[in-house]
Amino acid sequence: MAVIDLMLGVVRAVVFVYDVLTYPVYTFIQQPWEAKTRQNLGVVHQTERNAEAIAFRRDKGASEIYQEIIVRNGVDTVSKAFNYSVKKFGQKECLGIREVHGIEDEVQQNGKVFQKLSLVSKRGPSFQKVFNFCYEYKRYWMKRGRGTPICDKIVFNKIRSLLGGKMDFVLVGGAPLCEKTHDFIRTCLGVTVVQGYSLTESGCTGTVMESRDLSTGTVGRPMTGLEVKLINWEEGNYNVSDTPRPRGEICLSGTPVAKGYFKVDSNTKDSFFVDNQGKRWFKTGDVGEFDSQGQLRIIDRKKDLVKLQLGEYVSLGKVEAQLKTHPLVENICVYGDPYKQTTVALVVPSKVHLEALGQRLGKTESFEQLCTDSDVLEAVLKDLSTTGLSQGLEKFEIPSALTLCPDPWTPESGLITAAFKLKRKVVQRQFQDRINQMYSQKRPSSP
């Protein structure tokens, strides 16, 4: 059986035995559990398919679902099923996923309207002080297993209500979750946030945190039926002998792992291998480390690593993840030229926050004009440099120049995937002229 992955803009087929596709559902669910699901990943994502299957198993038996749709509503074709779904669910309000504490419409240049939730920073200074105090107070006691009903009543129940008020569990598996974001979601929504790690090639199995685990930055321990090991990656200077934690490329083995790539023997040979004990392994391309508790942490990505002119290695994905914590950044792509000494960045700015920065600088231009204003560009670069240093980045990792891109990056534009992952090569090709200019002038720029 083949699962088609369209996330990277190409058709990629992974060969599975059918039982492998149902394996993660079997291992995750052992008893009925009343629940509802709300997803953000595209349906082409294998993790999303399994999350839906798990939710169906918890909510009601499959026979009950089919009985409701087919028998009670006369749905007996794909077309009727689609029309039934639109009629029942199509008018539900979309709350957005970006920020918290109020809903607003943001009209794009192409006429599309993004509905998003606004940050606490838009409220008055008095409310910000109350929120910050309640946030730190609740975070402190949550890590000690205690509740904060007064803070919840004053602040956090209002945030929970934006998502229905009944959410109690969040599963994250699209990409490594920033530790601050992990804490923020858990504190503001009062939910259990579990982070996992898996791939299409492993049938959506890998590692997952335990629900009672209150740590951050980890993707948990291996799931039942799967083995995880690290192997040396000499080019990136990651070795299993590293101290205090062994580091290396993550490899997976076990029942759920695919047999290979469908009719692409070269890729299968590069990504799968058999060890001297006859065990088959899949090389993920991700770099991880095991902590003292045996939990896996994702620390790098092989294809995101670039070696600069003076020999320093820069993980582009790591730099992007840290700079994304700044509220000015909606999206970012960091680029490193092996023949240059620094990196540069393409940034999609938050319209609200960039306009606020412009007001502080005494600028009255439009959003598009602010993206070309040299004072604004220098201020943004300075802010991002400060953020990068505070997040532990080295100076050579922080971009020395940036471009502000006023148009959003969407799946329709082809710059990100359906799961909102960056298409790095596509972005690079589209903005290559701007990248060359940034390196030639070594100062902030705009398209």
Automatic annotation (TrEMBL):
Protein family membership: Belongs to the ATP-dependent AMP-binding enzyme family.
Entry keyword set: ATP-binding, Fatty acid metabolism, Ligase, Lipid metabolism, Nucleotide-binding
Biological classification of the source: Eukaryota, Metazoa, Ecdysozoa, Arthropoda, Crustacea
The species this protein was found in: Tigriopus californicus
CC per GO annotation: endoplasmic reticulum; lipid droplet; plasma membrane
UniProt-recorded Gene Ontology molecular function terms: ATP binding; palmitoyl-CoA ligase activity
Domain AMP-dependent synthetase/ligase: 162-262
InterPro entries (alphabetical): AMP-bd_C, AMP-bd_C_sf, AMP-dep_synth/lig_dom, ANL_N_sf
One GO term (biological process): neuron differentiation
Pfam family, one: AMP-binding_C
Alphabetized Gene3D superfamilies for the sequence: 3.30.300.30, N-terminal domain of ligase-like (3.40.50.12780)
Catalytic function, reaction form: a long-chain fatty acid + ATP + CoA = a long-chain fatty acyl-CoA + AMP + diphosphate
Record-listed E.C. numbers: 6.2.1.3
Protein name: long-chain-fatty-acid--CoA ligase
Cited PANTHER family: ACYL-COA SYNTHETASE LONG-CHAIN, ISOFORM J, LONG-CHAIN-FATTY-ACID--COA LIGASE
Ranges where the AMP-binding enzyme C-terminal domain occurs: 318-351
Leader sequence segment: none
SUPFAM superfamilies (alphabetical): Acetyl-CoA synthetase-like
